[in-house]
Protein 1
Amino acid sequence: MKTLGEREAREEILSRIARLRPDSHRQWGLMTVHEMICHLSDSYLGCMGQKYVSPASGLFQRTVMKWGALRLPMPWPKGVPTRPEVQQGVGGTPPANFDIDRARLAELVSLFGSPEFKESEAVHPIFGRMSRQDWMRWGYRHPDHHLRQFGV
């Protein structure tokens, strides 16, 4: 299973982000490619404690849902609701400049996958506290899901 803590997997995600274009078309969902970039950045910022994201966690989310999302070798389902603070058109950061926002996302991916990321200080709004391995798995799977949404 790929994780963002692995250099090759991190470089794969960064390469896919670099291939996004302002006119990239979604294959499902409502977000534009630029909104998706901001959503991913907001999600990383939230998990790093740099943006407030309201919790929506219970025993089911912290156990069964987390286990399935991080360990089952199948694509994540489409259309799963997100937290309002990272949802475009609600509380998510609005798109500004495509190239700058895309570069910011790449910086966050690199930082999140680096040893500087302190998983002990992070809390996922749905899955709760996680091990470094779980964070790195989520850090790969979340952008992978949305990059597939835009065909990269």
Protein 2
Amino acid sequence: MAFHTPFLGKLKSYIEQANIPLPDRMETYNFLHRTPAGEVLHPDFLSDIDTTEPLTNLREVYSRARTESIVKRMLFLDLKFTLADNDLRKVNRMCEAAGVDVHYPLLDDNIVDFSARIPSQYLMRRFEIRSFFRRAVADFLAPETLGKSKHGFGLPFGLWLNEHHRLKELANESLSSLRKRNILNPYYLDDIIKNHQTGDAAYYGVMIWILMMLEQWLQARKYS
């Protein structure tokens, strides 16, 4: 008799991911990498694009780092993609729109140069992440701050979608318009909506938010 538990399922997933080479392994958590492109994208759209390009770009940047350290390569990738191409763009533009002047002390050139010279063994000790940083600021920050677990910046959009009628209307209108563009497979859209309603609303709400923003972006730029 076979026994299936959530723990064993997670363990199996971790083992499978561990067998994927870096940096591809980092994208196994990407929503779009969990479903074959042929199931996500409309056949006409799929025939016009190169689905291997995102991972090709990732590998190119990862290999560009002038170090053999895996930790340093991952930090380099994070600096180029997560910060430069994503987080900083969002913060800068939203703060600019609100008339807020924003600065990044930890991204000062001297600090970035110094951080690049820190030996890898000090950056992460065993399973303690941000080891060097925690010890460097131990005399300045409270123990509660130093010991706090990582907390993401994601919005609970999937839950809001079930609570706010007008927001749900806007999402449905956006997905309906996006469906007509023949970018996504209509069956994929149907599955995302169904899974949001009957499954993990927070998880599937992330993809609905992304697709909704895509349609709003296309509309704002008058793409027909």
Protein 3
Amino acid sequence: MEILWLKTGPLHPLDTGGKIRTFNMLRALKRQHKVTYLSLCPPDISEDVRKAAAEYCHRAAWIPWREARKGSPAFYSQLAANQLASKLPFVIRKYRSAKMAMAIHELDKLGTLDLIVCDFLTPSVNLIWPGRALKTPTLLFQHNVESLIWKRMHDNATGLKRAYLRGQWQRMRRFEFESSARFDGVVAVSEEDAAIMRKDYALKNVLGAVPTGVDCEFFA
């Protein structure tokens, strides 16, 4: 198969559970399928990190993208603007990229892809354009039920932070449902997550779960 894999950053360094899970999944898929890795990429990422993508894909395409530094005036300005004027949660809105959306649709138009995989919910903000259907089947590869994470943060917060997180949690829940429902298939990280998606979101496209494996030889 020819697979287009969507992400919001390079995988190296392998310093989070999500990166490690994706890295090993892609490394296995690459043995039998042709993988194109399309991702946002900050300008200060080293060339070594970009080259390391050859470990998990046949071709990497990088879309320039810059994130406001946490704690900076620009960061707080974006938080405020998002809270006042956006229907999207901040952690989704910040990844919206017209250049990435265009790249996805240009590759889809070629008609050579067999599958588009959206890794995590975040890249999906660039996948669907109203009124423009994709030719290629789409799969959402979920690592979490994102709205549950935001609900927990809200429940444990107080004061103004709790009020802010309530809005973000509600926006995430709405976006997660609407976005997930558009995919041809959704894969969860556990059977428990798959059951939550089917029950709480009433999704009919949840295919099941792909649990995270363990490298027994490494730990031995």
